[in-house]
């Protein structure tokens, strides 16, 4: 997977003081951590670097990105800290990958899809050994299994004699079989196997249930993961998305008067689960519905990214007769991609299986409303103030839903401005700083300091937000 990242500017925001000076000793398992990447490594960095404001955080992480460079993560972290200075309260313990991890845990390719968790489990066993030694030397107040975020591998730290928290947990969402015709045969085969594995693993993995039973708190991504933990396993969880937004102070609400074309943008890897054909068919439906109407605003679509499905999707656009409305921008720098998104009236995200794609949060932070499925992490990130969500019932229902939603913006141009203002507000609610503070509140509550847990409006001091990477696309877990 190609990941594009960008460094965030330092933002001045208000965050609470440490309650009564109580810094907890926190041990975090986060295999993937990097200050210059997105997805799982970006999640690791953006949370642990902020949690260290309030706690003494010891991180057990891998030096290896499972690519040709065996020290990629470690080199990136050490270079960042050498340039920016150390982060007080943050200690890294780099745990070298065991042989099984090196053999099986790759970041891309079909091999990762089939044997990834064999390698990850081997690394977690080694983490448990080292964590046991550290905990015996000086006990921790909180132990947190942070990433990799898939529910299939909770690690072993829940066995230690300290309060255990887990999450964000994701990976429970299936792709309904009715959506398989939208994908190529390779993706159909993989996701059919994945759906069956999910069905078995959700019910038959005793270690996942044991970790959930032991956990003092679980954060879960989206309604599917919530249903797994609350329903199938019978334990409580808090709905929580794993990506964070950057607060931008120079963004103004979008304006659309209905006299110019409505500008849509789609961004992501060109792979089956991203389901771009839904949008192409929706454009064709809008075009048919507008035939014979004199006053109809055209719709233009810019498609960012590329991948194995690009050629097939271009053929679909030609066959449907909407190719003249579509610009294929291809792979571009993150800065250029942000410009394209910021100049659009609506981000359309058709994916049928995700965690929380960061392109959605990027769009919100840029004041761009989002049209997406009411599923996965998107269902949590997007609310009625900043976008429109379509229930994932069938391809036909999705096509009609996306088409009707786009028509809604054409018939009510002011809706763009209203939802653009809502997007800016929603991005502030979903910032990395806000997420780190939510997690810290749970730490204090669990450790017996709930009386000191302050609200975001109490005891605030100015804080210069840490910089970190953000990714334009999510990954399949």
Distance between the termini: 13 Å
Count of DSSP E strands? 15
Helicity level: 40-55%
Largest sheet: 7 strands, parallel
Order of helices and strands: EEHEHEHHEEHHEHEEHEHEHEHEHEHHHE
Specify the number of helices. 15
Q: Give the overall shape, derived from the CA principal axes.
A: globular
Radius of gyration in whole Å, from Cα? Answer: 22 Å
Compute the average pLDDT: 84
Report on this structure.
The protein has 477 residues and is α/β, with parallel strands linked by helices. It folds into two domains: 12-170 and 205-242 and 431-453 and 460-464, Glycogen Phosphorylase B (Rossmann fold), CATH 3.40.50.2000; 262-426, Glycogen Phosphorylase B (Rossmann fold). It is 41% helix and 16% strand. The protein has 15 helices and 15 strands. The strands form three sheets. The chain has a seven-stranded parallel sheet with strand order 4-3-2-5-6-7-8, sandwiched between helices. Helix 11 (358-365) links the parallel strand 12 and strand 13 (370-373). Helix 8 packs parallel to helix 9, helix 8 (277-290) crosses helix 13 (395-411) and helix 11 packs across helix 14. The longest helix has 28 residues, at 110-137.
Present the secondary structure layout.
Blueprint: E1 12-16, E2 25-30, H1 39-51, E3 56-61, H2 72-84, E4 90-94, H3 99-104, H4 110-137, E5 142-147, E6 164-169, H5 185-204, H6 206-214, E7 217-220, H7 222-232, E8 238-239, E9 262-267, H8 277-290, E10 299-304, H9 310-320, E11 326-330, H10 334-342, E12 346-349, H11 358-365, E13 370-373, H12 378-381, E14 387-390, H13 395-411, H14 414-429, H15 432-446, E15 460-464
Parallel strand pairs: 2-3, 2-5, 3-4, 5-6, 6-7, 7-8, 9-10, 9-12, 10-11, 12-13, 13-14
Antiparallel strand pairs: 1-15
Helix pairs in contact: 1-15, 8-9, 8-13, 11-14
């Amino acid at each position: 997977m190609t990941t594009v990242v960008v460094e965030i500017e330092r933002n001045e925001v208000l965050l609470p003081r440490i309650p009564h000076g109580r810094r907890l000793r926190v041990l975090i398992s986060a295999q993937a951590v990097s200050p210059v990447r997105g997805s799982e490594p970006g999640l690791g960095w953006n949370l642990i670097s902020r949690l260290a404001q309030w706690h003494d955080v010891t991180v057990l992480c891998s030096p290896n990105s499972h690519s040709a460079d065996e020290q990629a993560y470690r080199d990136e972290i050490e270079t960042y800290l050498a340039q920016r200075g150390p982060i007080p309260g943050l200690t890294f313990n780099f745990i070298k990958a065991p042989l099984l991890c090196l053999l099986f845990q790759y970041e891309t390719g079909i091999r990762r899809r089939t044997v990834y968790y064999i390698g990850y489990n081997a690394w977690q066993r080694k983490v448990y050994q080292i964590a046991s030694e550290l905990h015996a030397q000086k006990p921790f107040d909180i132990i947190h299994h942070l990433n990799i975020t898939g529910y299939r591998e909770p690690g072993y730290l829940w066995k230690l004699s300290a309060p255990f928290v887990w999450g964000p947990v994701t990976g429970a969402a299936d792709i309904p079989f009715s959506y398989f015709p939208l994908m190529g045969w390779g993706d159909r085969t993989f996701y059919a196997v994945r759906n069956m594995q999910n069905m078995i693993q959700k019910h038959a993995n005793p270690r996942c249930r044991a970790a959930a039973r032991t956990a003092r708190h679980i954060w879960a991504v989206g309604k599917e993961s919530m249903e797994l933990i609350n329903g199938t396993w019978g334990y409580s969880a808090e709905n929580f998305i794993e990506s964070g937004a950057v607060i931008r102070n120079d963004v103004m609400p979008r304006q659309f008067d209905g006299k110019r074309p409505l500008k849509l943008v789609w961004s992501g890897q060109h792979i089956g689960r991203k389901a771009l054909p839904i949008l192409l068919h929706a454009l064709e439906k809008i075009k048919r519905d507008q035939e014979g109407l004199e006053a109809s605003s055209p719709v233009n679509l810019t498609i960012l990214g590329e991948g194995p499905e690009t050629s097939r999707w271009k053929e679909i656009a030609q066959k449907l007769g909407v190719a003249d409305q579509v610009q294929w921008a291809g792979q571009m720098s993150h800065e250029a991609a942000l410009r394209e998104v910021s100049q659009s009236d609506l981000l359309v995200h058709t994916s049928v299986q995700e965690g929380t794609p960061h392109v959605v949060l990027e769009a919100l932070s840029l004041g761009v409303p989002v049209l997406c499925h009411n599923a996965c992490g998107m269902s949590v990130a997007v609310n009625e103030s900043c976008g429109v969500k379509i229930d994932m019932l069938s391809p036909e229902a999705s096509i009609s839903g996306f088409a009707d939603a786009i028509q809604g913006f054409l018939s009510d141009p002011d809706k763009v401005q209203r939802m653009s203002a809502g997007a800016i507000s929603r991005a502030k609610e979903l910032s990395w700083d806000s997420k780190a503070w939510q997690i810290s509140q749970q730490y204090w509550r669990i450790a017996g300091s709930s009386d000191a847990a302050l609200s975001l409006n109490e005891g605030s001091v100015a804080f210069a937000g840490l910089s970190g990477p953000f990714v334009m696309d999510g990954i399949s877990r």
